[in-house]
Design a protein that fits this description.
two-stranded parallel ribbon, 2 domains, 7 strands, alpha/beta
């Protein structure tokens, strides 16, 4: 069964006229892909559309507040109106067998027009409206109008050879009149594969997994997304902005920096190496509550403290800012530096002393902050900047970086 709704498959299979043909091909130089314009009837489109909606990890939610507009479209479709083209893309990995998508032939295009290969870039709400209309006409047993609708010609643009960043870029620019996709949604889509599979010794849990972080190397996917966005945006304050232009600029930055490496992978593996380094100073360290008078600790052990989004975001923003200042090359510099981190250059200091100091500073922030999460992120950004800046007196010295990072936070609030 292709679609939700008991009669939709019957309605679609009842008509057999096929008219799909390639009208034109042009190159989209901005995203290095081929745009193919197809002429087809609604029946041909619906044969793939239901599966696309059901299985598309890029899919946005259905709009609920545009009933009047789409009710009008339903009425127009009964009269064989011409809609603007629906825009699809064929995933790049589905075209690996084609050495040059710019020379693709019509038969190859038709063979690729399958639901498992396609995603909707623009026209999702129109697709839902067509599906609803077909279901309504089938229930009404209005075969004459249904046949006219199913045989109505539509135009479909298909992008060939487009990568994930190109997909997101086109989704944003095609949907500028709608509520724009958040940067969190963009990054989640780009790196959703990593939530399904391990990144070396790192595991990411999605909200639907309903799993708690219990071991070093485990993270909540949403928290890592926030931290990575803080790196891209050079801003520790979390994901809150939705402006189309800013989202496009972030995508351009990501495309520019990614190059031959995978920035997301570099980010989380570097951060995970840092946590393992801190843990190595005292395996399984946990706070002795008799040592510190704090109600509502930020965290009682290394795992609880360093897997919070505030810390991940502070790390991302700090590394981004250090890179922009040209004091580091990137994550590879930080990976090498992590090997040389010490708890303190003072002989009498140990991890317990440093962590009690850290938790005490966080308690101070909690007691004075107007927006606790925001100011915690600010502190961790300063902490990591001090820790990894070779021009800082606290370079690679954890406890010293805690002190100097806190002093900088205090001076700026």
């Amino acid at each position: 069964m292709l679609f939700l709704g008991i009669n939709r498959t019957f309605a679609i299979n009842h008509f057999n006229s096929l008219i799909m043909k390639v009208a034109s091909k042009v190159k989209d130089g901005r995203i290095n892909a081929v745009n193919v314009l197809l002429d087809m009837n609604i029946k041909e489109y619906l044969e793939v559309a239901g599966h696309i909606i059901k299985n598309n990890e890029f899919q946005r939610k259905r709009v609920k507040n545009s009933s009047t507009v789409y009710a009008l479209l339903k009425k127009d479709l009964r009269s064989n109106c011409t809609m603007p083209p629906i825009v699809l893309a064929i995933k790049a990995e589905k075209m690996n067998h084609l050495l040059n998508p710019f020379d693709i032939e019509e038969d190859q295009i038709k063979s690729l027009f399958k639901p498992e290969n396609l995603i909707i870039l623009d026209g999702l709400q129109r697709t839902y409206t067509i599906l609803d209309l077909v279901e309504e006409l089938t229930k009404e047993n209005n075969s004459e109008v249904l046949e006219n609708v199913m045989n109505n010609s539509i135009r479909v643009e298909v992008y060939l050879g487009i990568n994930k960043i190109g997909i997101l870029y086109r989704m944003l620019t095609l949907n500028t009149g709608q509520t724009p996709m958040s940067i969190r949604h963009q990054i989640e889509m780009l790196y959703s594969d990593y939530a399904e599979n391990n990144i070396e010794d790192v595991r990411l849990f999605k909200e639907t997994d309903s799993k708690s972080v219990r071991n070093i190397g485990e993270y909540q996917f949403r928290d890592v997304i926030e931290g990575f966005n803080s790196y891209l945006d050079r801003d520790e304050l979390g994901i809150s902005r939705n402006e189309v232009l800013e989202n496009i600029q972030n995508l351009e930055k990501l495309a520019l920096e990614n190059g031959s490496s995978d920035l997301f992978k570099d980010y989380i593996l570097t951060y995970n190496k840092l946590i393992k380094k801190v843990d190595s100073f005292n395996i399984g360290w946990e706070i002795n509550k008799s040592e510190i008078e704090i109600n509502g600790l930020f965290g009682k052990n290394i795992l609880q403290i360093f897997t919070k989004s505030q810390v991940l975001s502070g790390f991302g923003a700090a590394i981004g800012k250090l890179k922009d200042s040209k004091v580091i090359e990137g994550f590879e510099t930080i990976k090498n530096d992590i090997d040389n981190i010490v708890v303190s250059k003072k002989e009498d200091s140990n991890l317990d002393f440093a962590m009690v100091n850290l938790l005490g500073k966080l308690d101070d922030i909690k007691n004075r902050a107007k927006k606790i999460g925001v100011e915690q992120r600010m502190f961790f950004t300063y902490f990591f900047r001090e820790l990894f800046n070779p021009n800082s007196d606290s370079y690679l010295d954890m406890n010293s970086a805690i002190e100097s990072g806190f002093n900088k936070y205090i001076s700026l609030i």
